[in-house]
Amino acid sequence: MISIIPKQNRPVGAIFSLLLALTIHQTLTSNVPTTAATPETSSPPASPVTPGPPERGNYNVTNANDTVCLLARMALQLNISFTSTSQGKLVQEVLNLHPNLVKFSGSCESDRASLILTEDNITLTFSFSLNSTSNKYHLSGLELSASLPDMAKGLVVRNTTLNYLVGTLGHSYMCQKEKTLSVTQNFSLNTFQLQVQPFGVKGDFGAAEECELDEDDMLIPIVVGAALAVLVLIVILAYLIGRNRSHAGYQTI
């Protein structure tokens, strides 16, 4: 008698499901594009928003005899860097001083004078020195104290080794063009329409000594005018020479 071995039941449904799942997985993974991870980069600090040109203010200092000893007319703009509380990083800001809000004071001595400007939480101090030998004065120091709402801590910067705004005793120093005075790494001062006289004041500004920027502006029209004058002279000479030659061509018989 031949024995018959019964067939084992194969899990056909399970195998079919496994094959279907593998096929779907391959299809999905082949269709999804691979993307490279983008490294994080720190964005550079935003450029400071520059306000419009500042207004020109008139400032003076009187001595113990109630006589004016220092005169200044100028428009001022502060460039400062500080740690921002809201942004948590170093930022730059440009601020105009407003003459109608500024309180001014100062002092005068024989060879030293100062002008102090205060607006809200900002105090700006100018220090001038006079060389009695050469009768030349200059801006020798600038100090800024500022406490703005977004500052992590108050800013106090100074430089007492400057050599700006050089003038002669009894004369004023003038610079109508914008001029940048670098003070420290965190502070520079822009001046506009500046005229200052810290020594030898006799009621009003003395004769003005102009800065190089203003002299360059005056030089351009002078050069242009001289060039035009030379051109006119050449034309006149050419005309006279041509006229003489035409007369020489006719002889009396």
TrEMBL record:
<dbReference type="Pfam" id="PF01299">
    <property type="entry name" value="Lamp2-like_luminal"/>
</dbReference>
<comment type="similarity">
    <text>Belongs to the LAMP family.</text>
</comment>
<feature type="region of interest" description="Disordered">
    <location>
        <begin position="33"/>
        <end position="58"/>
    </location>
</feature>
<dbReference type="GO" id="GO:0031902">
    <property type="term" value="C:late endosome membrane"/>
</dbReference>
<dbReference type="GO" id="GO:0005765">
    <property type="term" value="C:lysosomal membrane"/>
</dbReference>
<feature type="transmembrane region" description="Helical">
    <location>
        <begin position="218"/>
        <end position="241"/>
    </location>
</feature>
<feature type="compositionally biased region" description="Pro residues">
    <location>
        <begin position="45"/>
        <end position="54"/>
    </location>
</feature>
<keyword id="KW-1015">Disulfide bond</keyword>
<feature type="compositionally biased region" description="Low complexity">
    <location>
        <begin position="33"/>
        <end position="44"/>
    </location>
</feature>
<dbReference type="GO" id="GO:0072594">
    <property type="term" value="P:establishment of protein localization to organelle"/>
</dbReference>
<keyword id="KW-0812">Transmembrane</keyword>
<keyword id="KW-0967">Endosome</keyword>
<dbReference type="InterPro" id="IPR048524">
    <property type="entry name" value="Lamp2-like_TM"/>
</dbReference>
<protein>
    <submittedName>
        <fullName>Lysosomal-associated membrane protein 1b</fullName>
    </submittedName>
</protein>
<feature type="signal peptide">
    <location>
        <begin position="1"/>
        <end position="29"/>
    </location>
</feature>
<dbReference type="InterPro" id="IPR048528">
    <property type="entry name" value="Lamp2-like_luminal"/>
</dbReference>
<keyword id="KW-1133">Transmembrane helix</keyword>
<dbReference type="Pfam" id="PF21222">
    <property type="entry name" value="Lamp2_2nd"/>
</dbReference>
<keyword id="KW-1003">Cell membrane</keyword>
<keyword id="KW-0472">Membrane</keyword>
<keyword id="KW-0732">Signal</keyword>
<keyword id="KW-0325">Glycoprotein</keyword>
<dbReference type="InterPro" id="IPR002000">
    <property type="entry name" value="Lysosome-assoc_membr_glycop"/>
</dbReference>
<dbReference type="GO" id="GO:0005886">
    <property type="term" value="C:plasma membrane"/>
</dbReference>
<feature type="domain" description="Lysosome-associated membrane glycoprotein 2-like transmembrane">
    <location>
        <begin position="220"/>
        <end position="251"/>
    </location>
</feature>
<feature type="domain" description="Lysosome-associated membrane glycoprotein 2-like luminal">
    <location>
        <begin position="54"/>
        <end position="202"/>
    </location>
</feature>
<keyword id="KW-0458">Lysosome</keyword>
